[in-house]
Design goal:
Elements (H helix, E strand, L loop, with lengths): L5 H21 L14 H23 L13 H21 L1 H13 L7 H22 L13
Helix pairs in contact: 1-2, 3-4, 4-5
């Protein structure tokens, strides 16, 4: 069978593989029932849906003809590395620096991944996303995420 769209085929493969891997990982948690779901219920259902979507995209890539085979093109390494670095820095600093500093650091680093960089936009994003994270995770969900740096609190 011939691949008629490389982009759809490989993106479908990523969805399918990630869905299967997470479905296998979710088996280690209690599923519960639909009425009383356990901790593994949501990850399992989400990963199954992801794998099904991946299979649908792969099927589309193998059956629907696209002009020129829809080649993948080059990988944007710079944005990929910057975003991975930003997430890693956030993960390493959240317990020590708290949300109030870690989220703006995450936003500043990740903003260098784009072609346009404006300090005013970064500042606005930092304020809005820090306040939204505080409202969602600390006020709304009552999670015990440190808000302030450990050397202050």
């Amino acid at each position: 069978m011939r691949i008629k769209s490389q982009r759809d085929f490989w993106s479908g493969m990523v969805f399918l593989v990630v869905g299967i891997v997470f479905a296998v990982g979710a088996r280690n948690y209690s599923l519960g029932s639909s009425a009383r779901p356990g901790p593994g219920y949501f990850p399992l259902m989400l990963s199954v849906i992801m794998a099904i979507l991946g299979a649908i995209v792969i099927f589309k890539a193998l059956t629907i003809e696209t002009e020129g085979g829809d080649p993948i093109g080059h990988v944007a390494w710079r944005p990929l590395i910057i975003i991975v670095a930003a997430i890693s820095v956030f993960g390493l600093t959240i317990t020590w620096l708290g949300m109030i500093i870690s989220i703006p650091i995450l936003i500043v680093i990740s903003s260098f991944a784009g072609d346009e960089f404006h300090w005013r936009d970064v500042l606005i994003n930092s304020i809005v996303l820090t306040v939204a994270s505080w409202l969602i995770f600390i006020v709304g969900l009552k999670l015990t995420i440190p808000m302030w740096p450990s050397f202050i609190a």
